Amino acid sequence: MSAETPTVSKSAEALPPPTERYSVVRWLHKNLFSTWYNTLLTIVMLILAALIARGVLEWALTQARWEVITANLRLFMVGQYPISALWRIWACVALLAFLIGVSWGIWGRMQRGGAAAFGALPFVLAMITSDEPSRLALVITGIAGVVGYALSWRWGAALQRVSIIGWILYFPILFVLVSGFGASDSVLPPVPTSLWGGLLLTLLLTVVGIVFSFPLGVLLALGRQSNLPVISWLCVIYIELIRGVPFISVLFMAQLMLPLFLPGVTIDRVVRAMAGVVIFSAAYLAENVRGGLQSIPRGQYEAARALGLNSWKMMLLIILPQALRAVIPILVGQFIALFKDTSLVVIVGLLDLMGIAKTVLAQPDFLGLQAEVYTFVAFVYGVFCYLMSAFSQRLEAKLHAGR
Amino acid sequence: MEAPPRSPSPLRLSRAFWRDERFIQIAVQILFLALVIWLGSVALRNMFTSLRQQGLALGFDFLNSGAGFDISDALIAYSSSDTFARALQVGLLNTILVSLLGIVLATILGIVVGVARLSSNWLVNRMAWVFVEIMRNVPLLVLLVFIYTAFFLKLPRARQAVSVGPVYLSNRGVAVPWGEPTDTWSLYVSILAGALVTGVLVGFAMRWWQERSGRPRPLVWPPLLTIAVIAAVGWIALPQPPLTLSYPEIAGFNFQGGRVLSPEFMALLIGLVIYTAGFIGEVVRAGIQAVPKGQVEAARALGLNPARTLRLVVFPQALRLIIPPITNQYLNLTKNSTLAVAIGYPDLFAVSGTIINQTGRAVEMIAVVMAVYLMLSLLTSLIMNWYNRRVRLVER
């Protein structure tokens, strides 16, 4: 018997799995023409794809009148925001570019290709644009980004804290710059919210929604997990009520009923819409955060208790950091959904990107150009969503690498 | 003799009552509840005062007064002289119609997309990916408005309608052949009901036979065949066919015969279906990919062919993972159908908006809308939870 026992040679044991190397023909065969029905499918799909691509390209390059976009680009970007105050928006953009540059140099050193593309973008746009002030502003933006990147490349670790504080301060600075304050002859004369519009309004709604609904969502999630029955029940009622109704009805409620609840206080339409966004988004975030909380093993709670931490410290120092980290990709997904959902404010009469699209289509010069205008709007939304999800994927990979 | 050293008695642990944890917990809850009630009552009182100043009293009596507006798509008889309540019913039925049709079609398309994303054919795989990415990165509202204004409203007028077989596309909507019920229709409906019952009974019989004999018996086709045969025999045996098919024809500026589906309805349905299908596709793909490869290999090793592997091993396991997220997508679709208001399809929300504009009864109408959508959401959740319980893993 022992003679028949196969002896495993060392080389056979250590043999690596075969790596597949393809020539073009073999790749084609394996991926497109492996069986007769695959071949059939490939041919049908090829014809379909060619037809779609041809139709779209022919329309986009020969028939579409893109001048409706170029002529109204400022409207699409900032709405009726006064031209004399446009530098404030550009300042926000340049500051954002600087912060992105710094952060990229600190945390994203590996992605040099992306950094180069991102850094070159303002300069390329500056070359394309025909408007002198915008060109100058774009060049300044580009330089701010490059300077930030260079600074962090040189003093990366030292700048970490500065950049985090910078990001936290960015939100109030953004608001002060955009809305202004004081009398109409001050340095930053106030710009009424009725003049905010276009992409600016869409982004502001999103940012406000994220900044305010996130802490609210965390509180609601903690409340739902609480072992105090009254608090947990009230949180459950809030979360399930909001999640059970459409977003547009919450927006309508904010528009129509907030003034009834708070008479005497005049809340303008944009702020009411922001309230609606926050109320709605908080309920969804709460559920996402709850998922993270439930993924924390019981031992973590017990260990925190054993170290003598009280409930607040336990939550803030032990549980929440781990729970939030676990759900970052889901949270970013929720933020993307929030960004897309802000398009609904057009139904309550605000002039966000969609609202501006409607007003542009009412211009007598550009009647009937719905396809061009909405394609552009979809493209803008698509770009931002894509950037957010790409960022989320990088973040996820980085967090997993740390494990 | 020394007095024993005084040690703190273990019984004297009682602290001041405000440091007792149970007391703190109860106090916190009472305070929180009081705060919520106080805020709520202030808000409500303010609301009542401002409503009184506007000369409005809360109540639903106005629902019985005449609506005075027309609704283009109504499933039940409706005219502008009917009441607001009737108008709301029309809107609710439209919402239910769009949601149900949307759920069914989005599920079918979503499964196709999800399977295509897993296809070994590179081209199919990439095309499904492009579809999913477009759907996931563009807001539904933009999609709906695009389909409505840039496609359906751009179609030629009825006279120059584009015909695809018996179907006509024009800016009036999509004209399709439609069955007109004749006198024997109601009789035929009861025959169909009978066929359905018989089919179910046959299904039970086959299952019983399988369990008794211990051998696999066909479970799917005998009941279906039974239903089909009874339905066909009934159709032929009746003195007059229960449905006559009427084809649309261009007549003047409009269509005659058939059924014209409004551009608003079609745009809403198509938009909801393709948008949700993008999301369902991803859910299906994730569910199927989550089934361990060993399961497929084990099934093949047991001698199951690829089709049976998919049907008996992969799919039941994937289903468990797919159902909860797909339920969410169904709920989203129902809630998203409110975007009908942006393209003028009279669903519940759009009708309520019109009523608010006409009567100023914002509080009541928002309450009605929220209550109805809550109930629809609850109903969908209940059905899907029941289904989920049926397919989930039965553990010992």
Write the layout of secondary structure elements.
The complex is a heterodimer of chains A (403) and B (396).
Chain A: H1 10-13, H2 24-31, H3 36-63, H4 67-71, H5 73-78, H6 86-107, H7 112-128, H8 132-154, H9 156-179, H10 198-225, H11 229-244, H12 247-261, H13 269-294, H14 298-306, H15 311-326, H16 328-341, H17 353-361, H18 370-401
Chain B: H1 21-53, H2 84-117, H3 122-137, H4 140-152, E1 162-164, E2 167-170, E3 173-176, E4 178-181, H5 185-213, H6 221-237, E5 243-246, E6 249-251, E7 254-256, E8 259-261, H7 263-289, H8 293-301, H9 306-336, H10 340-343, H11 348-359, H12 362-391
Antiparallel strand pairs in B: 1-2, 2-3, 3-8, 4-5, 6-7
Structure summary, number of beta strands of chain A: 0
C-alpha-based Rg of chain B, rounded: 30 Å
- CATH homology superfamily of the largest domain in chain A: MetI-like
Low confidence ranges of chain A: none
Class of the domain at 106-177 and 247-346 in chain B in CATH? Mainly Alpha
- Overall CATH class of the largest domain in chain A: Mainly Alpha
Whole-number count of domains of chain A: 2
Instruction: Look at the helices and sheets of chain B and give the structural class.
Output: alpha+beta
Counting DSSP H or I runs of 4 or more residues, the number of helices of chain B is 12
Q: What is the molecular shape of chain B?
A: globular
- What portion of the residues of chain B fall into strands of 2 or more residues? 5-15%
The helix/strand class of chain A is mainly alpha
Question: Briefly, what is this?
Answer:
Chain A has 403 residues and is mainly α. Helix content of chain A is 75%, strand content 0%. In chain A, helix 13 (269-294) packs antiparallel against helix 16.
Explain what the structure shows.
The complex is a heterodimer of chains A (403) and B (396). By secondary structure, chain A is mainly α. Chain A has 2 domains: 84-191, no CATH class; 195-403, MetI-like fold (Orthogonal Bundle). Chain A has helices at residues 10-13, 24-31, 36-63, 67-71, 73-78, 86-107, 112-128, 132-154, 156-179, 198-225, 229-244, 247-261, 269-294, 298-306, 311-326, 328-341, 353-361, 370-401. The two termini of chain A are 49 Å apart. The mean pLDDT of chain A is 86. Helix content of chain B is 64%, strand content 7%. Chain B is built from 12 helices and 8 strands. In chain B, a hairpin with a 2-residue loop joins strand 6 and strand 7. In chain B, helix 4 packs across helix 7, helix 5 (185-213) runs antiparallel to helix 6 and helix 9 (306-336) packs antiparallel against helix 12. The mean pLDDT of chain B is 86.
